[in-house]
TrEMBL record:
PROSITE patterns given in the database record: BON (PS50914), CBS (PS51371)
The organism's place on the tree of life at top rank: Bacteria
UniProt keyword annotations, A-Z: CBS domain
Gene source species: Streptomyces pseudogriseolus
Classification via SMART domains: CBS
A Pfam family: BON
UniProt domain BON: residue ranges: 126-195
Protein name: CBS domain-containing protein
């Protein structure tokens, strides 16, 4: 798994609660493990909610007496897939104002948990490390070029790509691949191309055959 994917930086040893877990047990688990929230999972390990310290202190109607995790959890849970990029994980955390996310597989089953600190550690890369990653993962793996086929400069996380590629579609691939790398703030596209293979080709016009006897 690539370092830019959530699954590469998540913690796999996760403390969870069931919907029927008593609130007293939830409070003890939060304190013993020094975490701010617990994923709530069903019998098949699917994440159905999250219970946090703020959920425990949120005012509720008097007629409803909360006794279990299922009574007070936030649902549906905000989760992230293991194959998502750390940038996508950061966007989710920021958009939902949370400090940690349960990580799930394609079936929605819990496989780990990731915190804001985990994601920050993954993206804090030096400019030199980013340049090496661009030459290896973009020029080499994505475009099948030699590491020096293009000029690559990185300053404060901003990647500038300069040079000429054979096709316009290769330019799009290069920019997208570079922007997904951990630590990349932005990509400046200074690339040119030989052939624009993104335009639809005009339909062939068949020559009219002369009518016999004319």
């Amino acid at each position: 798994m690539k370092i830019t994917e959530v699954g590469a930086v998540m913690t796999t040893d996760v403390v969870t609660a069931a919907p029927g877990t008593a609130l007293g047990d939830v409070i003890r688990a939060l304190g013993e493990h020094r975490v701010g929230a617990l994923p709530v999972t069903d019998e098949e390990d699917r994440v159905i909610g999250v219970i946090s310290t703020s959920d425990l202190t949120r005012p509720r109607p008097v007629r409803r007496r909360a006794r279990t995790a299922g009574d007070v959890m936030s649902a549906p849970a905000v989760v992230v897939k293991a194959g998502a990029t750390v940038t996508e994980g950061s966007w989710l955390m920021t958009g939902h104002d949370v400090g940690r996310l349960p990580v799930v597989d394609d079936e929605g089953r819990l496989v780990g948990i990731v915190t804001r600190a985990d994601l920050l550690q993954a993206v804090l890369r030096t400019d030199g490390a980013i340049e090496r990653a661009v030459r290896r993962d973009v020029l080499g793996s994505a475009l099948w070029l030699t590491p020096r086929a293009l000029a690559v400069t990185v300053e404060d996380g901003v990647v500038t790509l300069t040079g000429r590629l054979e096709r316009r579609s290769d330019v799009d691939v290069a920019v997208r691949a570079a922007s997904r790398l951990g630590g990349v703030v932005a990509v400046v596209d200074q690339l040119s191309y030989g052939v624009d293979d993104t335009r639809p080709r005009p339909a062939a016009v068949e020559a009219e055959e002369p009518v016999a006897g004319t």
